[in-house]
Amino acid sequence: MRLGDNEDQARFRAGLRRWLAERVPAPGEGAPRTWTAGELRSWTKTLYDAGYAGLTWPAEHGGQGLSPAYQAIYAEESALAEAPDHAGVIGLNMVGPAIVAYGTTGQKAAHLPRILSGDSVFCQGFSEPGAGSDLASVRTRARRDGEDWVLDGEKVWSSYAHLADHCLLLARTDPAAAKHRGLTCFLLDLRQAGVEVRPLRQLSGDTDFNQIVLTGARVPGTAVLGEPGQGWRVALTTLAHERGTFGITLTARLAVQLDRLVATARATGADTDPVVRAAIAELHVTLQGLRYTGYRALAAAARTGEPGPESSILKLRWSAANQRVATLALRLLGDRATADGPDAFWGGYWQHQRLRSRANSIEGGTSEILRGIVAERVLGLPRAR
């Protein structure tokens, strides 16, 4: 495992750092700036034009054909610069690689260029009210009707579905088959008849998550990704890429949050309190553990060509650490923690983070599911069921 960049990676990092410095306002002390949907679209085009979208995608599909190490460098540097995400981050990091692996020539031509450029935004439709992160329990049904499929069912917790054009959706096409075998993935047009997207309001007031209701939604056979009945394999490929360099991104963002926590401690005069200093030091140790776990997972991916189950450790521990940062920040504010709005400390930034962070242990795979993956696929423990 390399703990530093090689010569070419160092040049790439230095060039990227200069490029970001020229285009992203330097972060000041306090809460980060927010980006409108229009600004995100504009930023996505800037990324695409500069060649920073799809760094690890094959060159024949519009990418740069680089190793995951370069994507990790981009994730670190963009987080530290507080740059916004690509507008189609789910399509770029999860759906796109699945289309590369399983898509037909027509599907690749129709979707991959538009995902890279941000002209087409994808969400993911896996979780359901009765299934959650247990994908094998999916109940959304798809039945054949001539050359088409007709979909009925419901999805929940679909991030950014209210902004998306398409959805990579998992449905049960063979009710008689074993739970893992009767599933199929579809590239669903969210603007078509029979599809309703309902934003879900969170504790923080955000509406990042959505419910997708399917009522007789008709999709052509050309919308099947992979072969009918191969949905489980396609879904696992998608989730593996979700947890690939995503852990590096989360770690870099946690580093930025920890810096903000330190700034809050200084602003409130708590930076000399030994209990507070010990708590921050413990979080710093956790951050370093996550960082090197991320590098280890990256080294494993470089050997095998696919992200491994070790990346689940990153998501699991990051969720708890990020929640602890926000909790400690509010404790440092004392009575001011009850204030909100423009008169609050940093405009109520930490209050919002505390509420938003509660979803960290649910989104991207619940902590319970991730513990099972770590137990069975990393530690080699016997299956619980």
From TrEMBL:
Keyword Oxidoreductase assigned to the entry: answer is yes
Please give the Gene Ontology molecular function terms for this protein: flavin adenine dinucleotide binding; oxidoreductase activity, acting on the CH-CH group of donors
Q: Which cofactor does it need?
A: FAD
Gene Ontology terms: cellular component:
plasma membrane
Does the UniProt entry include the keyword Oxidoreductase?
Answer: yes
Q: Which residues form the Acyl-CoA dehydrogenase/oxidase C-terminal domain?
A: 229-379
Domain Acyl-CoA dehydrogenase/oxidase N-terminal intervals: 6-119
Q: Where is the Acyl-CoA oxidase/dehydrogenase middle domain?
A: 123-205
In which domain of life is the source organism classified?
A: Bacteria
Which UniProt keywords are present, listed alphabetically? Answer: FAD, Flavoprotein, Oxidoreductase
**Pfam families from the xrefs?**
Acyl-CoA_dh_1, Acyl-CoA_dh_M, Acyl-CoA_dh_N
Q: Which family does it belong to?
A: Belongs to the acyl-CoA dehydrogenase family.
Q: PANTHER family attached here?
A: ACYL-COA DEHYDROGENASE (PTHR43292), ACYL-COA DEHYDROGENASE FADE34 (PTHR43292:SF4)
The entry's protein name is: Acyl-CoA dehydrogenase
* Organism annotation: Amycolatopsis suaedae
